# Entry
Amino acid sequence: MTALLAYTIFGLVTGGAYAVVAGGLVLTYSTSKVFNVGHGAIGMVMAFLYWELAENRGLPQWLALLIVVGGCAPLFGLLIERFVMRRLAGAPVGITLVAGVGVLVGLIGAAQAIWPPQARPVRPFLDQYGVHIGQSFVSGHDLVTLLCAVLVAGGLYILLNRTRTGLAMRACVDAPELAALYGTRPYRLSALSWAIGSALAALGGILLTPVVQLDYVTMTLLVITAYTAALVGRLRSLPWTFVGALGLGLVQSYAVAYLPSSPFWIAFRAAIPALLLFVVLLAMPQSPLRIGGVRGSRGVAVPTGLATGVGAAIFLGVVLALALLVDGVVAGQLALGLVFGIVLLSMVLLTGYGGVVSLGQFTFVGVGAVTVARLGSSSPLALLAGAAVAAAIGALIALTVLRVSGLYLALATLGFAQLMDKLVLQSPIAFGVRGSLQVPKLVGSPAAQLILAAGVFAVVGAGVLAVRRGRLGRRMIAVKDSSAACATLGMNVRWIRVWVFSLSAAIAGLAGGLFAQLRETVAASDFQLFNNLPLLLFAVIAGVTSVSGAALGGLLLMLLPVLQSGFPAFAGAAVVLLGVAAAGLARDPNGLVSWFFRAWSWRRA
Amino acid sequence: MSMLRVEGVTVRFGEVTAIDDVTLSASPGVTGLIGPNGAGKTTLFDVISGLRKPSAGRVLLDDADITAKGPHQRSRLGVARTFQRLEVFGSLTVWENVVVALESRRRSSRLASELLDRVGIAEFAANQADTVPTGAARLLELARALATDPQLLLLDEPSSGLDRAETDAFGELLQQLSAEGRAVVLVEHDMDLVMNYCDHVHVLNLGRLLTSGTPSEIRSHEGVREAYLG
# Structure
């Protein structure tokens, strides 16, 4: 009984901190219709800043808290709103998501550059105080957390329901132009909501540091719990979001207390936030088919079959020449770049053509790699088996989340990636918790690896273009532009999505097999959730609508760690640059390669 | 015999009742569905085509209850529609828009040029669909709907954006479709078009069926004038 009480209090306290973070997320979403994926990263950076002021520079805790939550965080929110999000007003959900991921990755890079890895203990608030409830002790920090949650809940409620500003904020979501006619200034309101949102992310982050430790990725991904809480409130209702947050805190606390401590259950506990995200998404009502207005996007020109053949021949010729000229190290790196390029081809299909943003594509690469590793062979048949297993899992995930679309679907892929990482890839049937697997090479020399990767890339790339020119490609784009019209023309749009998911997963799985035999040693950490984010960013920066974009993106993705180890001082800066570039370029998914195409057609004209 | 029957359909959005217990039918030929803005015409189309579930009531096609069926299943039973707010596939060419529809019904893509010709927009075939004028885009939606070879065709304000000559051509096309034995339901603000080409007209006002009758009966109906003039 005593234990139950103690764990209940602990759960409520953690839930209270989640509620603060989730409240900020709902506020920014409900006033700007941009779901801030980088919300957790803002909290993370602000928590580091708090450490810097309160622990490193020795400022009093309350002063540091005031400076960070009352000054730096709102200011940062204003900057993000002004320079990233405002330009994306009314953009499709995929674009705002990518911009948010850009912010997230950029912030992690910045934090790593400013605060190199080391242990950073943070003192809890009021640590000399506390009260006893029965036999359990509630610390001063716990009380502060609960108090903050109550104040934030009350404050947000009053702001939105009892003030003119709040009324105007709610009006602006529905019709910004109309609200502007009545004298409100939508930008100012949106800026205000971003400022408050970031302040709440910072407050929640700081309150949680004594619980979760100051770490770049852990704290950033803590936001998954906030996402889940916000989804309980359907991204609109603050009271339900708070209920959701407290519930999540309790579930996690009870899981720590009462689940057995075998390795499986330890992994299971780590997967609880993602699992709950999934459950909440499955309980969402069917998304209605959106009606209203022409949507279209200008892709890069699709080459004919002949042009594809010529292009592939030139590409293979160039690679062959390179294989003969460059040394083994460079050949191996280029081969890796092209393997990443194949992963990006899977995103050309899914995101570029199908308009579905996946935050879990690297997981399918992991599935392909595990399959090949477990088969103990890298024969072409084993590679195909890897593709087949990935395709089956891709179909399964698409079937599970058949009901949701857009933002919810993207979040589902995120939850899926986290679940697969914790429950499957790190389990004994795959790599094991810190384990790795050996994979025999299919071909020996780096030059041969390069030619192999280029050959597969050319075949898959030609295949992707053939799909685009054919029936399935037309359907995918039709579904992206108007699912409602597709349905009234007799297409079962959900099945088309299952096909696309499955095909795309197959390509990623194939790339996974190639990756495994190229690396020879693979581990679960190669495919963790976070690796998906740079993948998505490079896809968008290089161009997610074309095969050449995939090749360029793959090479850039391979170059990132090479450059980082070559110039360690700029390792963080490179990641910041990546995030900034993606946030800036998100508007045009045709990416950098489309500039080359345009320059080329201009020359010929 | 009526091909389409809507029985006691009610649609509520929260507190607001958009359609209130509407019963009407449509037979082969052209049936007009008119009413002031906000009368519930488009919402009724959404219910008939399966994009929106009614709060109450049934939709019957050839006497079979299709209320529980999804939009793609209804399409396969012969229901097609166009949209008041355009839903063309903007990233595809005009020709590809029609081909997608043909392919979804396993019909030959060679019919596409014929269909574009029939609605009079063959000149735009190679243009990306989000670049063509509104009138042409409306006709493209019609061509795309016809590509499914529908028995019941729901047209939502097809003539807005068309000039006089194009509207006349469209009227002739309506007659042809009617002669082919299809049931066409026309939501339209162009009263000349409604009066000249419809066999039967239903009038909706504020979500309720105000009256039904032949065009001349509707023209002389007191309540209809009041509804329009407020």
User: Anything to note?
Assistant: Chain A touches chain B through 29 residues (CB under 8 Å). Residues 282 and 401 of chain A are 7 Å apart (CA to CA).
